[in-house]
Amino acid sequence: MTRVRDAIPGYVLEHRLGEGAASTVWRARQSASMDRPVAIKRGAQLEREAKVLAALDHPNIVRVFEVVPDGDGVAVVMQLAPGGSLEERLTAKGPRPLGEVVDVVTKLAGALGSAHRRGVLHGDVKPGNVLFTADGEPLLADFGIGGLDDGRVRGTEGYLDPTVLAGRPPDASSDVYGLAAVARTMLGPDAPVPAAVERALSPVPADRFPSAEAFAEALAQPAPVRSTRTFGPRPPTPPPPAARPPRRLAAGAGGVGVVAAAA
Q1: What residues are paired with 40 via a beta bridge?
Q2: In angstroms, rounded to a whole number, what is the distance separating the alpha carbons of residues 61 and 59?
Q3: Which residues pair with 131 in a beta bridge?
Q4: Residues with Cβ < 8 Å from 218, sequence gap 6 or more?
Q5: Would you tell me which of 64, 84, 125, 138 could form a disulfide with 53, CB atoms 3.0–4.6 Å apart?
Q6: pTM (2 decimals)?
Q7: Measured on CA atoms in the order 186, 191, 196, 202, is the torsion positive or negative?
Q8: Phi and psi, residue 179, nearest 5°
Q9: C-alpha distances in angstroms, 114 versus 21, 122, 211, 212, 251?
Q10: Sheet holding 37-43, edge to edge
Q11: What is the 3-state composition of the chain as percent helix, strand, coil, each rounded to the nearest 5?
């Protein structure tokens, strides 16, 4: 059984924000002079996730401030996201307009691209792992599980790359698939699917975009529109052949005039 301390030195636990199978997340306040509000994730198997998060540096990835011993495990002191999760926003407000979807996806794509360049996969890109700051900036949380190689498939139904579920090792295209599934959820079930989302959700990894940023760039492209150029009036339609008068052709080589009736 995992043992955790009732308190964490240097922090005052205020209330529980959430609980998973192997960890709990608390809202806390740093009791030092800064009196900074933070989120603290407590659990027995968080060392790997803490190291992964600490190595990443992007404005749209949840920051790790400190990792402290906590009974059998560790407590990861992280950036607090008071704006809640994307899942909560969609539950409260419903589908989002395309402009908002593009904005959120573009920022998350930058976060994923930064992680991929450091050899880190996310593995569970979904609305519940997209958090928001007080100013509404999206933050990608729960990095690290995609890099664990214990043979277990991790991810969430509806957002998990089906080829990974079938046994293929995850790669960057798996996170692109998850990001596209998030975009599709944001648009809502009744909205027309942009071509970029359809491509990124391809069951064939090689047919998806080469990077998360490439997907976001394609999603931001405006849809083709019909030309608004004004043309002059169309010429009158010629009469049908039967209404045309007979036409006399020039004399042939034998000197005989030939009258050609209209066909």
Answers
A1: 26, 77
A2: 6
A3: 85, 139
A4: 195, 196, 199, 209
A5: 64
A6: 0.79
A7: positive
A8: -65, -40
A9: 28, 11, 11, 10, 83
A10: 11-19, 23-30, 37-43, 73-78, 64-70
A11: 30, 20, 50
How confident is the model over 2-59, as pLDDT tens digits? 455 678 888 999 999 988 777 899 999 988 767 789 999 998 888 887 888 888 999 9
Pairwise CA distance, residues 20 & 90, whole Å: 21
Other beta carbons less than 10 A from residue 71's beta carbon: 14
Q: For the purposes of burial, counting CB atoms within 10 Å of the CB of 125, is it exposed (0-12), middle (13-18) or buried (19 or more)?
A: buried
What confidence tens digit (pLDDT) does each residue in 123-168 have? 999 999 999 999 999 999 988 554 444 555 578 999 999 999 999 9
Q: How many CB atoms lie within 10 A of CB 119?
A: 10
Helix (H, G, I), strand (E, B) or coil at 124: coil
Question: How many residues are present in the chain?
Answer: 263
Copy the structure tokens of residue 133.
């700051």
**Rg of the Cα trace of the chain?**
31
Separation in Å, CA 242 to CA 132, 162, 263: 74, 65, 7
Distance CA 73, CA 79 (A): 20
Question: Whole-angstrom Cα distance, residue 201 to residue 185?
Answer: 12
Sign, Cα dihedral of 124, 205, 217, 119? positive
C-alpha to C-alpha distances, 59 to 50, 62, 103, 176, 180, nearest whole angstrom: 17, 8, 14, 19, 21
